[in-house]
């Protein structure tokens, strides 16, 4: 079966059938995987997209339409079909919650509000109670029914797939939390909110104080001096959205722990849940420049309150230990800052939903290279043709260099991934050059010089040890400066283009020896863009990107 192992430097490796595996993932639209017939025309497109891992929903209402009667026929067929196309699956368990609602609960749950009560919000306009299309997390019957169904699903997967390991991971629920209010106002929820904070919550937060992330410590500035017999508002603050969010996060995390632990007991494969993020516009990332509400809101209830956003990430990690990690869905948040936040406590990083356009494809290289992601997954891949999807080219290149990336991680080598966004003529360049240190060398990574307008750029640089570097990508250049004392000159000894063989296990063969114009007369390793803009200059001295893979040796005097 698949498992996640820890590596040097806080990185992780996903092992599938005992071998390191880097996900070139893509998520289907919500209903696609429910129909094997619909998927027949989708599988070949996914292969053409150079995808190796498909994320798709498996819903509670489909597999348990009547209580205690399970139907796995559609699931079994899509697993067989994925296997026949050489693809792995990450199943998304749409159980009690999907996007802050309970629309995937089966009819026998939806129509029995006495046994399975719903959350109640305070209407923001009238102040009156409002019944929500969302199960309340404060009722034992709901999580027990969900956990039973989830455990039955995983038991079935173990029976039919443990050897082949087509399903390599499962997401537990989807973007949980309460929409429409900062906390549940139902009678059961109110009784708990007005009661004593569970002593073990206080004990654990006190014991873990030094390891909490900064945003939670700021929220809990005076928490560590509170009395343990106090109520939620006594401990965390009165009339506070943050108090409401902590209350909901604790109970959502415990709910998912009940579900996840039941599944783990049936079949011990990696489990995670994902988070609908707060939208905090950030001038440092063009992709986050959208109105807050369009991107999911900035306050609890605009985004799902109690979900695993960074403000309560520690609570989720501490109280849902059966989840191997918490994953961010990154659409409009600052991409790299979010990657860094969700490496908290050295947990694995996986991005199960993100943009499928050019900005999304460019940013993938930072996630894989700098932040050690197990993979990224553009959403709605079945909506786009492989001919126009930017991920087709990016995933082809990623497949060609996956052995080098995985080997570097396993050996604790330094990797750095980066991107430079597209911008129009006359606009300021939104992407700054990057200066990093690898071993005894300072690297300056910048856009490749052209007389015309620069193109978007992306890549990964791997330090292979000593004076050797491995470079992937296009549209950038790297100069090197030795940090060894009394060095008077730093230069490039050689640059070799590498070319990948075809097939599932590519090998890199020697290509051209690059020098002269192709190295800026020895000043930098240039990884040119696909169509360099010469700006009308009459000497054509810029070559277009070819293999997008190179290896260099540098030296100093």
Short description:
The chain is built from 15 helices and 23 strands. Helices cover 27% and strands 26% of the residues.
Main-sheet strand order equals: 11-10-9-6-5-4-13-12
Return Rg in Å: 25 Å
Mean pLDDT over the full residue set: 95
How many discrete domains?
A: 2
CATH superfamily of the largest domain: Glycosidases
By DSSP, the count of extended strands is 23
CATH class of the largest domain: Alpha Beta
Give the termini distance in whole angstroms: 51 Å
Largest sheet: 8 strands, parallel
Structural class label = alpha/beta
Q: What's the tally of helices? A: 15
Going by CATH, the architecture of the largest domain would be: Alpha-Beta Barrel
Show unreliable segments.
none
Strand-residue fraction?
25-35%
Shape: globular
CATH topology of the largest domain: TIM Barrel
How much helicity do the residues have? 25-40%
């Amino acid at each position: 079966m698949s498992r996640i192992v820890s590596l040097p430097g806080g990185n992780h490796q996903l092992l599938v059938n005992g071998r390191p595996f880097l996900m070139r993932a893509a998520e289907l639209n919500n209903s696609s995987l429910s129909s094997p017939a619909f998927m027949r025309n989708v599988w070949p497109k996914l292969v053409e997209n150079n995808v190796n891992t498909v994320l798709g929903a498996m819903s509670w209402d489909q597999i348990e339409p009547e209580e205690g009667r399970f139907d796995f026929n559609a699931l079994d067929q899509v697993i067989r079909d994925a296997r026949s196309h050489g693809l792995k699956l990450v199943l998304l368990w749409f159980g009690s919650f999907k996007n802050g609602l309970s629309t995937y609960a089966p009819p026998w749950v939806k129509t029995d509000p006495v046994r399975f009560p719903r959350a109640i919000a305070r209407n923001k306009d009238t102040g009156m109670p409002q019944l929500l299309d969302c199960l309340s997390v404060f009722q034992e019957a709901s999580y027990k029914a969900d956990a039973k169904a989830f455990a039955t699903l995983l038991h079935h997967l173990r029976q039919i797939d443990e050897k082949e390991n087509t399903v390599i991971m499962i997401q537990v629920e989807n973007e949980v939390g309460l929409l429409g209010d900062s906390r549940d106002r139902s009678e059961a929820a109110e009784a708990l909110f007005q009661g004593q904070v569970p002593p073990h919550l206080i004990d654990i937060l006190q014991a873990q104080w030094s390891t909490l992330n900064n945003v939670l410590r700021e929220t809990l500035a005076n928490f560590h001096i509170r009395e343990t017999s106090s109520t939620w508002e006594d401990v965390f603050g009165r009339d506070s959205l943050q108090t409401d969010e902590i209350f909901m996060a604790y109970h959502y995390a415990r709910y998912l722990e009940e579900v996840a632990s039941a599944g783990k007991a049936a079949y011990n494969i990696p489990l995670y849940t994902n988070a609908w993020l707060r939208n905090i516009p950030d001038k440092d990332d063009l992709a986050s420049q959208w109105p807050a509400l369009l991107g999911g809101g900035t306050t609890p209830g605009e985004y799902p309150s109690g979900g695993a956003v960074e403000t309560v990430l520690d609570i989720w990690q501490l109280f849902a230990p059966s989840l191997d990690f918490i994953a961010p869905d990154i659409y409009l948040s600052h991409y790299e800052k979010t990657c860094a936040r969700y490496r908290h406590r050295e947990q694995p990083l996986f991005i199960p939903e993100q943009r499928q356009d050019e900005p999304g494809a460019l940013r993938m290289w930072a996630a894989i290279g700098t932040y050690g992601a197990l993979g990224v997954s553009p959403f709605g891949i079945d909506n786009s043709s492989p001919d126009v999807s930017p991920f087709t080219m990016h995933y082809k290149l990623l497949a060609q260099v996956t052995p080098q990336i995985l080997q570097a991680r396993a050996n604790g080598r330094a990797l750095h991934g980066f991107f430079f966004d597209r911008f129009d003529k006359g606009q300021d360049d939104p992407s700054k050059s990057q200066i990093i240190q690898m071993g005894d060398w300072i690297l300056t990574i910048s856009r490749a010089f052209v007389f015309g307008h620069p193109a978007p750029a992306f890549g990964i640089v791997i330090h292979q040890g000593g004076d050797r570097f491995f470079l992937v990508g296009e549209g950038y250049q790297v100069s090197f400066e030795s940090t060894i004392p009394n060095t008077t000159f730093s230069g490039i000894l050689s640059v070799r283009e590498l070319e990948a063989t075809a097939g599932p296990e590519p090998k890199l063969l020697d290509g051209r020896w690059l020098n002269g114009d192709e190295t800026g007369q020895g000043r930098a390793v240039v990884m040119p863009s696909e169509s360099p803009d010469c700006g009308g200059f009459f000497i054509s001295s810029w070559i277009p990107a070819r293999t997008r893979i190179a290896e260099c040796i540098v030296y100093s005097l």
